[in-house]
Amino acid sequence: MIMDDARDPNYRPSKMAKRPPKCRICDAGLHTVLDLGRQPRADAFRSPDDSTPEYMFDLQLGLCESCGAVQLVDEVPAELMFNASYPFRTSTSQRMQRHFRDTAMSLLKSEVHTHTKPFMVEFGCNDGTFLTPLAEAGVAHLGVDPAANLVAEAVSRGINAQSGWFNADTASSILSAHRSATVIYAANTLCHISDLASVFVGVDVLLAKDGCFVFEDPYLGDIVEIGAFDQIYDEHIHYFTATSIDVIARKHGLALIDAQPLDTHGGQLRYTVARPHQKRTKAVEALLETERRMELHSRARLGHFASVVESRREELTSTLEALSNDGKRIAGYAATAKSATVLNYCGIDSALLSVIYDTTPEKHGRLAPGTGIPIEPFPTSVDDYPDIFLLLAWNHAREIAAREPEFAARGGMWLQYIPGVKLTKDPVA
Ligand code: TYD
User: Fold this and answer.
1) Residues 314, 399, 323, CA angle at the centre, nearest 5°?
2) DSSP per-residue letters across 104-142
3) Would you give the distance in Å from CA 36 to the centre of its chain?
4) How many Å apart are CA 262 and CA 221, to the nearest integer?
5) pLDDT tens digits for range 19-38
6) Could you tell me the pTM of the whole model?
7) What does 177-202 look like in DSSP terms, one character per residue?
8) CB 261 within 8 A of CB 219
9) Which DSSP string do the residues of 360-405 spell out, in sequence order?
10) Is the C-beta atom of 399 inside 6 A of ligand 1?
11) For residue 319, is it left (φ>0), alpha (ψ between -120 and 50) or beta?
């Protein structure tokens, strides 16, 4: 068991004794509402030969009661997380590939009605999955991403992309080299950026007068509803709601005009921000009202979420221990970034979970951050699968269940922990 974490009764988060944390949006004080203990960088898959001390930080969720923003208290420097060795690839999931193709094509369809010369910019473009259909359709586009490895890959496939961070300077240089953007798009990126003001100023600089800034990120309402505490890790600095996005947008002369629920990554929202003269949909009004009714931005609601997370940990660890004592062989399904949070918070190491299988070649032969669980490619034969898979990529359950019919057919079981701890034959049921 890992002892340097919140399960250790002597554990005290080091940052709590330091300066009181401030809201990144409005500078008011932050209240710590959930403490997930000492955690590594979620995507720092280490080589077994690496004997340097592992980077660890206090993973805590903070609430700003003044503007409603929910965010990490402490943060890892961005350069440590998003650089030329960033291992996440959007294209890994076929469902996500389809999702981004459909999103690109539907945005383009509405663009064709609105603008004669669309120019679509994506920041956090990763390996170019979203931009590919636009490039194929001959639409003017540009991707921006700090992960130079992924940008090079996108460029080699004919996508216009450049490496870097999206901010006011980048926006000005794109504007001078090209023209104003009719759509600015970002998926699973905005919540990664500590200084949101730098992005919103950039959007204001680059966005055409009647353009739209469309972005998708995990939704705090869903995280709280299903107790998806593993969505909380170093890269996810912000946990947005319609309320908090409208506050930030208005600070920058923009407004939230639409918000649509998505079932991707376990529950997200697609936010559309535009200049305030554009009409706001009824969906936004309804969502703002729901969030008020749920008291989503209150210490009481988030305190309840924290108690659900604590009992989830107790239930998951006792279930794993019982199964292991029963002689079951248990392996992790997918070395997701999210898995770092659940494994470290629950103190699950290689004594309980002998291996995590994953499809990403860069992760093979490496160790899971914090826990040191080895990561390997999936066995080529189902005969070599374990008795039980801990479903670490629960957000892709449908796709995974469809890919693994033989596992279930030969009696394999899935151990889920979102939305509750459950041992099941069918992770979609
Ligand atoms: P994902 O949940 O998309 O993201 P995150 O890492 O941000 O939590 O998981 C991506 C990881 O899961 C990646 O390492 C590839 C792996 N994976 C598999 O090994 N098999 C699969 O079927 C899927 C969908 C993902």
Assistant:
1) 30
2) HHHHHHHHHHH-SS-EEEEES-TTSTTTHHHHHTT-EEE
3) 16
4) 12
5) 669 999 999 999 999 999 99
6) 0.91
7) HS--EEEEEEES-GGG-S-HHHHHHH
8) yes
9) -GGGTT-B-TTT--BEEPPPSSGGGS-SEEEETTGGGHHHHHHH-H
10) yes
11) alpha
Cα 316 from Cα 8, distance rounded (Å): 17
H helix intervals, 256-298: 282-294
> Tokens in use for 329?
């062989």
Determine whether the shortest distance from the Cβ of 393 to ligand 1 is under 6 A: yes
Beta strand 56-63 pairing with 207-218: unpaired
Coil/strand/helix, residue 268: strand
Could you give the residue ranges of the DSSP H alpha helices within 275-415?
A: 282-294, 299-325, 337-346, 397-403, 405-409
Q: How far apart are the C-alpha atoms of 153 and 18, rounded to whole Å?
A: 42
A 10 A CB-CB count for 68 gives: 21
Q: Tell me whether strands 70-72 and 238-239 are parallel, antiparallel or unpaired.
A: antiparallel
Tens of pLDDT along 108-145?
998 777 778 999 999 999 999 999 999 999 999 999 99
Q: How far is the CA of 236 from the centre of ligand 1 (A)?
A: 16
Report CA torsion sign: 258, 302, 29, 291: positive
Is the per-residue pLDDT at 91 higher than 90? no
Chain centroid to CA 136: 28
* Residue 88 Cβ contacting ligand 1 at under 6 Å: yes
C-alpha 424 chain-centroid distance? 26
Cα angle: 54, vertex 59, 61; to 5 degrees: 165
pLDDT band at 58 (very low <50, low <70, confident <90, very high): very high
Q: Report the DSSP beta bridge partners of residue 40.
A: 56
Report the chain's mean pLDDT, rounded to a whole number: 93
Give Cα 144 to chain centroid, integer Å: 18
Distance CA 122, CA 301 (A): 34
User: Does residue 207 sit in helix, strand or coil?
Assistant: strand
Rounded distance from Cα 217 to ligand 1 centre (Å) = 16
The answer to whether 356 and 57 are in contact (CB under 8 A) is no
Which has the closest alpha carbon to 275: 292, 256, 289? 256
Say if ligand 1 is within 6 A of residue 45 CB: no
359 lines ligand 1 (CB under 6 A): yes
Between CA 91 and CA 110 the distance in angstroms is: 25
What are the structure tokens assigned to 130, written together? 């979203």
Amino acid 172 reads: S
